[in-house]
Amino acid sequence: MRRSKFPVSLLWIFMAGLVMVVTGCGGGAGNSVTPTAEGDERAPAFTLNDLEGNPVSLSDSDGQIRIVDFWATWCAPCREEVPMFKELHAEYGGRGVKIISISMDGAENLDAVKEFVAEYDIPYTNLMDDEEVSQQYRAAGLPATYVVDGDGAIVKNYVGAKPKRIMVELLDGLLADEAGEAGS
Fold first, then answer.
1. For residue 71, which of 65, 78, 98, 184 is within the disulfide window of CB 3.0 to 4.6 Å?
2. 44-47, long-range: CB within 8 Å, 24+ apart, which pairs?
């Protein structure tokens, strides 16, 4: 009996990778929390177009806590996070927290992104990535979320879907810190 030259183990590795790509969005899917050197890394400045072609800069919201979220319409965990971000927007938008959503679908898919935003009734800022910004942020897996304080420092970054409680704890802590600094 003749053995195949293609090892079965390679087939299994290929199949596992395919499953990860189909079910997730690459990178560190799941609830991984990857902190940066807190307060040491500055958020890269950017100006991107919103879905109507208007330029929006990160610096437009200096002084506010920003949640910068890289996502794509084809990413299942990204879709799962939309209700959480809508709730965070409703709960924290009036308290100095701004959500900036950056689609990595590519300019050629602008209509699909517009349909997605309309279908999910997304009320927060939505921008189109130019491929440079996601590279500057090193957004390797999706969703990739960066929490930026009012001074422009990346406080935390997350790759993969995250539970709302993690975001609430972080935002409450940042807002308490800012209130403490303002009262000093």
1. 78
2. 44/133, 44/136, 44/137, 46/133, 46/136
Task: For residue 182, give every residue at least 6 positions away whose Cβ sits within 8 Å of its Cβ, in sequence order, or none.
Answer: none
- Decide: pTM greater than 0.90: no
**Which DSSP symbol is given to 128?**
E
Q: What count of Cα atoms within 13 Å lies in the side-chain half-sphere of residue 157? A: 23
Q: What share of the chain is helix, strand, coil (3-state, %, to 5)?
A: 40, 20, 35
Q: Return the residue matching tokens 């300019």.
A: 107
pLDDT along the chain (184 residues), means of 10: 51 42 43 46 96 97 96 97 98 97 97 98 98 94 96 95 96 90 66
Which DSSP letter does residue 105 get?
S
In contact, 165 and 39? CB cutoff 8 Å: no
- Residue 85's SS3 state is helix
**Nearest-CA neighbor of 157 among 175, 173, 137?**
137
